[in-house]
Amino acid sequence: MEEVPPGYRPNVGVCLLNSANQIFVASRLNVPGAWQMPQGGINDDEEPRCAALRELHEETGIVSAEIIAEVPRWFTYDFPPSVKAKVNRLWRGEWKGQAQKCRFLVKFTGNDSEIDLSKGEVDPEFSEWKWETPEEVIEQAVDYKRPTYEEVIATFMPYFSNKVATVKL
Predict the structure, then answer these.
(1) Quick one: which of 107, 106, 102 has its CA closest to 169?
(2) Torsion on CA atoms 124, 130, 135, 137, rounded to nearest 10
(3) Cα(105)–Cα(82) distance, rounded to whole angstroms?
(4) What is the pTM of this model?
């Protein structure tokens, strides 16, 4: 795997798309009103594709999903000072932000009843979820993640149609 940019925590991000071409977002328990797509750290010796599906399951309970596209490069964002202090304590490191390797576009192949924010294998991170248009996802993202979300959604925009093809970017 390509080297992580110095000072950034390795991470994967998932853009989960339903059959109506809406994107899954969830509101963080610890930051009410902060809507985001599923994401999480890459474990040592874990492939990014496996990390993406693991994080999706841990955070949402979803197993009915298939990866349809990926962007195999790092997207980085810096934490604002208040977030940086908190996550560095939590993760026991000194991170200036996160680097998301391989943002994945994932097709949800199940039913909404499968989504259970409290059923994953870890402590719940989210309080509620919804399906949104790409524009609404960008609009509702926290400020420091918005540029990354804009770039990811622009990259995946060709897939937001009624026919979703499997292509590696």
Answers:
(1) 102
(2) -10
(3) 30
(4) 0.84
